[in-house]
Amino acid sequence: MKISVIGCGYLGAVHAATLASMGHSVVGIDVDPGKAAQLAQGTAPFHEPGLDELLAHGRATGRLRFSTDPAEARTAQVHFLCVGTPQDKTSDAADLTFLVSALEGLLPHLAAGAVVVGKSTVPVGTVDMLREILARRPDVLLGWNPEFLRQGTAVKDSLVPDRLVYGVEGGRPAAFNPHTGAPTGVTAALDAVYEPLLAAGIPRLVCNFATAELIKSAANAYLATKVSFINAVAELCDAAGADVTELSGAMGLDPRIGSRYLHAGLGFGGGCLPKDIRSFRAQAATLGVPAVEQWMRLVDAVNLGQRERTVGLAAELCGGTPAGRSITVLGASFKPDTDDIRDSPALDVADRLAAAGAHVTVTDPKAVNLAWRRYPRLRFEASAARALQDAELVLLLTEWDEYRQLCPAAAGQQVRRRVVLDARNVLDAAAWQEQGWVVRGLGTSSGAVTAAAVR
Ligand SMILES: NC(=O)c1ccc[n+]([C@@H]2O[C@H](COP(=O)([O-])OP(=O)(O)OC[C@H]3O[C@@H](n4cnc5c(N)ncnc54)[C@H](O)[C@@H]3O)[C@@H](O)[C@H]2O)c1
């Protein structure tokens, strides 16, 4: 099939490359000329494992192109909208202006009978709003196909998704072909797009627009709830003298609970979860559902509180104030295996400590080049070995494998004081303590120390 993908960021670039790998002829359109040019060369403009290989393959087969010109999409039968829906600058709601301008830009180039499918994460009512833009083109069909990929495993998640969700008019295929019994309309178009995935048995759910719009927000709200729940319990563990990693490990063995997203630490950030739970909260307020609204407010507050707590613990480990201290931060991206620094908890904590007068050096395997421009108060080093030099306090804030596997003896040779705050609770505390390190985690009070102990 001929397909266009409008918006080639973390979601769109992966989607375009995945569709080309399935045999479709795909053009990706992005307003950013630098991004479009780099993608056209077959290299990803951001770090995502496996994406370079997929882009190079698409380029070599001639099935994958990129452009800044929406007219290049004119022969496509299906158009996927993958532009950003960030938090509005003045409220918790999602800003839909990129979506509106993407559709308006595409409108003059839509072929008769084309199908437009949104993949961006949007609030309820978005489809109704976009339908007004399409009012002059009753021949064009609109559908919603929310995306669940996770940065860091986005290629795998796209090639083998957990499920496919189709939001369609009325919540069911418009009609069935009387001869074959196969669905028609948006459902048929998406079935053709995802034919290899459906053949492999990936579940597909067809629902109405409001459900499709809410599924993704509700899924992210649930994941955020799980993270904030265990982080609230971590604080309880510290107060009670319990260890949250042992507690969550035991809880997670219950299949009704599961261990994923049940790991206490610095909390979530990035371009999705924070803005999605705020958009969910704003939707609940608009729709008059205070329980969801209050719930999301608490989840957000607990999450942001972890950053505050980490800054406070760092100050405590510095003997009361971080001012004048040399602090090394391991990790800048919002999570491992990505260079995305949008709403990064690590950089937020690092910047707050610098604002309090600490000399903060940050290192990250992939994100240094993106971060240094935006955080003038911080010093950046490309390697952990250099960043650790003469540190009086080490903070592990993003759990890259490289930092999980750091050798405590070797790291101990580089620092001035062997004190580490493991805000992701991933280090083997006993192994570090054996090498003379003072180790502190979040909710692991067995490693707690008083300020006096580290002076
Ligand atoms: N990043 C993820 O892991 C992920 C996962 C699932 C869903 N989503 C959702 O997908 C959407 C996109 O997220 P993202 O992380 O890829 O954002 P992003 O900022 O990385 O990418 C958006 C891209 O759209 C481009 N763009 C903006 N206006 C355009 C226009 N009019 N025409 C063409 N291109 C335009 C931008 O230049 C940018 O490259 C959001 O709604 C997000 O919530 C993201």
From TrEMBL:
Binding residue positions for substrate: K216, Y261, L262, H263, A264, G265, G269, K335
EC number, as in UniProt: 1.1.1.22
Tree of life domain: Bacteria
Residue positions of the active site: C272 (nucleophile)
Gene Ontology terms, MF aspect: NAD binding; UDP-glucose 6-dehydrogenase activity
Gene3D superfamilies linked to this entry: Cytochrome c1, transmembrane anchor, C-terminal, NAD(P)-binding Rossmann-like Domain
Enzymatic reactions: UDP-alpha-D-glucose + 2 NAD(+) + H2O = UDP-alpha-D-glucuronate + 2 NADH + 3 H(+)
Domain UDP-glucose/GDP-mannose dehydrogenase C-terminal intervals: 328-429
Keywords of the record: NAD, Oxidoreductase
This protein's pathway: Nucleotide-sugar biosynthesis; UDP-alpha-D-glucuronate biosynthesis; UDP-alpha-D-glucuronate from UDP-alpha-D-glucose: step 1/1
Binding-site list for NAD(+): D30, K35, T85, T121, K275, R342
A single BP term in Gene Ontology: polysaccharide biosynthetic process
Protein family per UniProt: Belongs to the UDP-glucose/GDP-mannose dehydrogenase family.
Protein name as catalogued: UDP-glucose 6-dehydrogenase
Organism (species): Pseudarthrobacter niigatensis
